[in-house]
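Quick one, probably user error.
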């Protein structure tokens, strides 16, 4: 899947896409109306209900009525989950996201550059996007005679130090962060405050890559490092629950990464406020043989944004799986996390998807 489509998908699923309805709330100069038909532009309208989108979905190779597809659904997540369970020969998470991205691009081209596309052009571009990525991937793999798994240990810094790129890592990666700016959270005691927690897990499996984004909240913390230690503790519980062997924990707090990599709790420079949390981390991952590195905030962007999304979370947890070969019930990740609980934490969202 193209990196730009992955970025688009993240923004779409985390409700961060600047549609007219969403962007118009922040400025009176931004129209909330669809640039094609003048109706209020939300995600459902833009991608499924606008005449242009309906014509695109009804053309080759989909031949479906998008207005009927989303009937009875209140979120894009449930709509796409239903879409993936259809016995349609063209259905896959990659094909759906490529088509949605092309609809988004066609909208932007028309809105900002006045470039008019026809509905069937959407799928021509989506098909070319898949083929181009396939050709580039095959070309790059043919140029690389040394497999990716043969990364020299000398390329990695000492544990607890700064890793300039997570592309140097092979195997499971677990990113964590916390939103220290406290705010009232639904699901907690009234008038209490809480800390947003975001965790992003990525690991290879069966020639694919499993990606899981988790959004949670926890009681208030007294310092940024305590908040981030709380997020790391939650990430450790997740790794233990999913039995992820040889995970690499990544965070953009250098002091916490150094302390977690040391494996010591009673060192003089370890703040008392996080000693219990570090002890919990070491207990959870004692059999997983982990490693720990510090990364920049840019690399940790998904966990960072997921933590801040907690400030607007719902009480009821949202658990979704977007893998094309299994639904919510049979997803191994969802089945393990469906009843997952950690004392003191409130889980708001679990989203699992698979990429090539």
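Nope, works fine. Designed sequence:
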């Amino acid at each position: 899947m193209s990196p730009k489509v992955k970025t688009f998908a993240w923004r779409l699923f985390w409700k961060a896409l600047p549609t007219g309805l969403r962007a118009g709330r922040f400025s009176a100069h931004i129209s909330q109306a669809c640039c094609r038909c003048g109706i209020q532009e939300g995600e459902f309208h833009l991608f499924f209900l606008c005449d242009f989108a309906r014509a695109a979905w009804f053309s080759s190779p989909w031949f479906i009525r998008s207005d009927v597809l989303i009937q009875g659904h209140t979120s894009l997540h449930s709509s796409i989950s239903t879409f993936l369970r259809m016995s349609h020969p063209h259905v896959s998470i990659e094909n759906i996201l490529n088509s949605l991205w092309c609809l988004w691009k066609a909208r932007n081209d028309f809105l900002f550059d006045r470039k008019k596309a026809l509905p069937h052009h959407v799928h021509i571009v989506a098909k070319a996007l898949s083929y181009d990525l396939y050709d580039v991937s095959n070309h790059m793999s043919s140029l690389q005679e040394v497999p990716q798994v043969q990364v020299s240990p000398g390329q990695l810094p000492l544990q607890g130090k700064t890793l300039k790129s997570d592309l140097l890592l092979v195997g499971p990666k677990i990113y964590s962060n916390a939103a220290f700016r406290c705010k009232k959270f639904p699901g907690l005691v009234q008038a209490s405050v809480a800390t947003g927690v975001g965790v992003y897990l990525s690991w290879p499996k069966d020639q694919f890559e499993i990606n899981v984004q988790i959004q949670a909240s926890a009681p208030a913390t007294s310092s940024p490092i305590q908040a981030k230690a709380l997020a790391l503790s939650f990430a450790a519980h997740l790794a233990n629950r999913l039995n992820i062997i040889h995970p690499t924990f990544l965070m953009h707090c250098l002091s916490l990464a150094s302390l977690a990599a040391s494996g010591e709790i009673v060192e003089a420079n370890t703040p008392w406020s996080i000693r219990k949390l570090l002890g919990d981390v070491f207990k959870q991952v004692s059999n997983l043989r982990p490693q720990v590195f510090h990364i920049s905030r840019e690399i940790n962007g998904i966990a960072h944004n997921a933590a801040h999304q907690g400030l607007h979370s719902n009480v009821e947890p949202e658990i979704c799986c977007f893998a094309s070969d299994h639904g919510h019930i049979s997803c191994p990740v969802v089945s393990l996390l469906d009843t997952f609980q950690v004392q003191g934490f409130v889980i708001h969202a679990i989203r699992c998807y698979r990429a090539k």
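Strands lie at 173-183, 194-205, 208-219, 248-251, 291-294, 318-321, 346-355.
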